[in-house]
Automatic annotation (TrEMBL):
Domain of life the protein comes from: Eukaryota
Gene Ontology CC terms: voltage-gated potassium channel complex
CDD domains: EFh
EF-hand domain span: 85-120, 121-156, 169-204
Molecular functions per Gene Ontology: calcium ion binding; potassium channel activity; potassium channel regulator activity; transmembrane transporter binding
The protein's name in its UniProt record: Potassium voltage-gated channel interacting protein 1
Similarity remark: Belongs to the recoverin family.
Amino acid sequence: MGLVMGTFSLQSKQVSYHKDKADDDLEMTIVCHRPEGLDQLQAQTNFSKRELQVLYRGFKNECPSGVVNEETFKQIYSQFFPHGDASTYAHYLFNAFDTGNTGSIKFEDFVTALSILLRGSVTEKLQWTFNLYDINRDGYINKEEMTDIVRAIYDMMGKYTYPVLKTDAPKQHVDAFFQKMDKNRDGVVTLDEFILSCQEDENIMRSLQLFENVI
């Protein structure tokens, strides 16, 4: 789950709370895209109004226009993986955040996804992760899609990973996943199969809890 976080939440932790509501309202009017009101976002997410204010300032620091395109998203995300190539994984991650297929991520898109990843139920987190792997959004994960994601993760971690990864490591990883997840052996993993398999895996379940108190 840590690979999904990106830099915005980290930026937000460095912002102080000293500004009042009038300042927040003013800030929201000077960017190109005005996000939905804090009350509405509070109702739609698991964040308090104060947390949303901090997240918004962090988002605006990185994206003064109020939206972020894919190229900017890749540049921001790649800063966290200097020894690897994060561009492909960032592409898939961007598409998962851009649920409306608009080619850009608004603050509402960002904070909605972050709410699920940090404060959502286990099922909500797994549904979001499933959608990340379901590249063509047909409701199934096939081996090609999972291989593309896993290879992108290996590329992102870079050549300095330890132990040194073998060339066929992504394929072995995917084969092991499918052996576990494809319950009916039909060559694809459904959402139900994905959720069930993840819930049976103690390591995955622990990873879902790592960032619950990030902000």
